[in-house]
Specification:
This protein is mainly α. It has a domain at 20-44. It has helices at residues 6-18, 24-34. The protein is elongated and about 50 Å long.
């Protein structure tokens, strides 16, 4: 049985451990923006 807020706490713990998932298409768009600038890609 879950109490109010439990799903959010569980999701926060999962994302803290594994990172926030980024859809592949968004990742491609971000890379297309950062590459011409020569900035380091820090999203993994």
């Amino acid at each position: 049985m879950l109490a109010p807020g439990d799903p959010e706490y569980q999701e926060k713990a999962r994302r803290s451990a594994n990172g926030i998932p980024i859809p592949e298409k968004l990742d491609e768009l971000v890379r297309a923006v950062y590459q011409p600038s020569g900035a380091a890609y820090v999203l993994t």
